[in-house]
Amino acid sequence: MSVFLVAAALVWTGMLWDVAMVSFGFSRSYLLSVALLFVMGFGGWLHTVFLVTLFQTIPTEEIRGRVMSVFGLIGAGFPLGFLLGGALAVTFGFEALSKTSPLTSTS
Predict the structure, then answer these.
(1) d(Cα 31, Cα 20) in Å, to the nearest integer?
(2) CB 24 within 8 A of CB 38
(3) Is 66 in the same domain as 36?
């Protein structure tokens, strides 16, 4: 499979997850919400598969291990970010964080 096809699939699965998440936010039906959660889980799984495929095919063999270890370190850092976000929410309140999060995510 071409790297460009995998990259395109990565973009499409990311958009699938985004659309399902926004739709889930507006959903008022229990069954629709469950179906959208399934789509989000499946889309996230596919996204991860394509992402790891790119990480394993693009780098040369000499640096592939380093690339995958950085990918693993990023995944291991998520709990630290969640801990920091929780501490900030307790300190400043959830409303203040939800209003400033778009500013911090775009900088």
Answers:
(1) 14
(2) no
(3) no
Clarify whether residues 37 and 78 are in a common domain.
no
Domain, as residue range, for 31: 1-58
Answer for the pair 54, 7: CB distance below 8 angstroms, yes or no.
yes
The two structure tokens encoding residue 16: 């699938």
| pLDDT given at position 102 | 65
State the DSSP string of 41-86: HHHHHHHHHHHHHHHHHSS-TTTHHHHHHHHHHHHHHHHHHHHHHH
Examine the domain organization and report whether 38 and 17 are in the same domain: yes
Interval 31-75: pLDDT, tens: 999 999 999 999 999 998 988 888 888 889 999 989 989 988 988
- Same domain assignment for residues 54 and 4: yes
